[in-house]
Amino acid sequence: MPGPDDIGALRRPGAGPATRGVPVVMMTANLEMFVRPPAVFDHLGIADLMQERFELHELIAMVDRVAGGGGGT
User: Which of 2, 6, 23, 59 has its CA 20 to 30 A from that of 47?
Assistant: First the structure.
């Protein structure tokens, strides 16, 4: 995506108190994101990561898991 990288987009001013409680499912083609420890993402509200090139049923399952409070990287 043009502009900020995946993490940078979550640090922008619009990602403030009004949206702090909204869980984020990050979809990325950057495989380096998957080797970072989960704690790196906790303070950004990232509930889970999904590698691009996914099947619809995988996305639905992840959203169900995150929406149900069972998220986690």
Answer: 2
